[in-house]
Amino acid sequence: MNKKWFGLERILLLSNDSFIKNIFVLITGTASVQVLNFALTPLITRLYSAEEFGALGLFSSILSLLIVISALSYPIAIVFVKEEQKYKRLVSISLKLMLITGAALFLLSLLSLNLFVFSFNDILWYLFLGFFPASITAIYSQILLRNKKFKTIAYIGFSSAIAVATTKIISGLYYPSSTSLILSAILGFLVSLTAMHFVIFGKSIKFEIPVFNIRERLLMRELQQFPLYRLPHSFNAALSQIVPVTLLTSYFGLKAAGYFVLTRSVLMVPVTLLGKAVYDVAYPKISADFGNKPITKFLIYSTCGLLGISLIPLLILLFWGQELFSLIFGHDWSRAGLYASCMSFWFVFNVSNRPSVAAVSFLGLDKLLLINGVISLSLSTLGFLVAYYVWGTDTAAISAFFLCAIFLQVFLISNVLIASGKSDKSLSTIN
């Protein structure tokens, strides 16, 4: 009897836990987006070719890299700092840095009119068009996370997904091209930006000349670990999105890149659904608990939970990926299912490492995270090239690329758990 009521009490306690509620809210929002995207993707893959998906993947990868560079990773610190004045200065710093980067991109776009070939000139202008809404949205997202506006993030994400999916389908019926896919992605950023701005600032629009005052310069120096360590890591992470697309395009053609883009978008469902939701909630929680409460048990439980949840569906892809992709997305996309089989285990670890990545800054492991990322990308690229020259197939090259990355993921998780254990031990000694 007591055990029965103990189990019921445990469930009630979990349901009242704010951390669990926040994860549930984010999962609900991201789940809605993923269900919508997944439901409409079979229609979209029948409207666009693999080559057009490849062009979209290249655009998105480069844009992600530009967003990382734009504010030197200072937006990440918006959740990290606790003083209200520092938070406001950080927002100002991030927006000013973004304006400077945008101006440089605009200048490069103007120069490209005479210096580059037509196709490259086109993608530069598309990047400039998408840069401002995408980078500002990234900053606004951190503000909403700091203010625990998890429901707002979920609602905006779903609205943006509807706009993007609808535009892709309508454009695909009348003008199926890579341009349609790219402009649809830009529209999604504009929808998110508009909604987030009204939530945070209302109807007011402020413009500041990108000149940093003394207090902002001092704060930038105080938080220099973010541009020194987080920026290179984020840059390396964004670069890791471009490298496989570029390698596949160079050695196997744009169609292979398109297969990869579809595979990555499908396998990112568990990453977005669980990994990102847990990271976005775990980061503020670890920030509040670190130095006051032990965090190792939380890291272990959340990592193992994510590992177990994501393992089953990805094992299904490992054995029946090609058949599933052919059935769901059309016969022309069966090759993408084979890519999914090659990549599935890496995505398991990419999901389960999110709590460890969230704890890196608090444990002083930013340098380790950077080194780990650089070595991972270098070894993965080397593995791709070796597999290409030895076996000469795209599946062998992809398998080698992601197999190398798995070892570095395990290494990172292990080191974070060791460091958190030492931190908890020192905390118990002090208390």
Protein architecture, described:
- InterPro entries: Poly_Biosynth_Transport.
- It is found in: Cell membrane.
- Its main location: membrane.
- It is a multi-pass membrane protein.
- Keywords: Cell membrane, Membrane, Transmembrane, Transmembrane helix.
- With 431 residues, this protein is mostly helical.
- The protein folds into 2 domains: 16-223, no CATH class; 225-431, no CATH class.
- The protein has 16 helices and no strands.
- The chain has helices at 2-16, 18-45, 50-70, 77-80, 84-115, 118-146, 150-174, 178-201, 214-222, 225-252, 254-289, 296-329, 334-352, 354-359, 366-391, 394-430.
- The longest helix is centred in the C-terminal third of the chain and has 37 residues, at 394-430.
- It is globular and about 60 Å long.
- The protein starts with a helix and ends with a helix.
Q: Evaluate the radius of gyration.
A: 22 Å
- The tally of domains stands at 2
Q: Work out the helicity level.
A: over 70%
The profile of the biggest β sheet is: none
Distance between the termini: 37 Å
Elements, N to C (H/E): HHHHHHHHHHHHHHHH
Enumerate how many helices there are, as a single number.
16
Uncertain residue ranges = 1-15
Strand content: under 5%
> What is the number of E strands?
0
